[in-house]
Specification:
about 140 residues; mainly alpha; 3-stranded mixed sheet; 3 strands; about 50% helix; about 10% strand
Length: about 140
């Protein structure tokens, strides 16, 4: 009788092969997952800033003035309606777009050159798409 206290070489090779396959899948999926999460974070930031804009005007403040290097986020922060001046996480070139006439905030992606981001943007649902400007959605 043999007293086997361990794994056979074949068992170890199978486990190693499975771990390699799982690792390869994770490495491929990671960048897309990060892009989607940053985009969703920016969409949520737009909602937060839109609420802050609404509060700003409900408090009876005059029209917001955004000048120079200011953004809607820095103006709302300076006025005490945001805890921090939020910056877009999506990609280089993304910015906040504030339209004074309609008092709306959107995520502006017109200067984003990252083509890999297009897939994540196109997967946004209809409600989230309303919060993005400067991007031609495809079906």
């Amino acid at each position: 009788m043999h007293d086997n206290k361990g794994f056979t070489l074949m068992e170890l090779i199978i486990v190693l092969a499975l771990m390699t396959v799982i690792g390869a899948i994770a490495v491929v999926a990671y960048p897309k997952t990060m892009e989607r999460s940053k985009l969703k974070s920016d969409i949520q930031s737009v909602r937060v800033m839109q609420s802050a804009v609404d509060l700003y005007y409900m408090d009876g403040n005059a029209t917001m003035t955004i000048a120079g290097t200011d953004t809607i986020a820095t103006v709302l922060f300076a006025a005490g309606y945001l805890k921090t001046a939020i910056t877009p996480q999506t990609a280089n070139g993304a910015s906040w777009n504030y339209t004074a006439s309609t008092k709306t905030v959107k995520l502006d992606l017109s200067n984003v050159t990252d083509t890999s981001l297009r897939e994540a943007i196109n997967k946004l649902d209809a409600e989230d798409r309303k919060l993005v400007t400067g991007f031609a959605f495809t079906s």
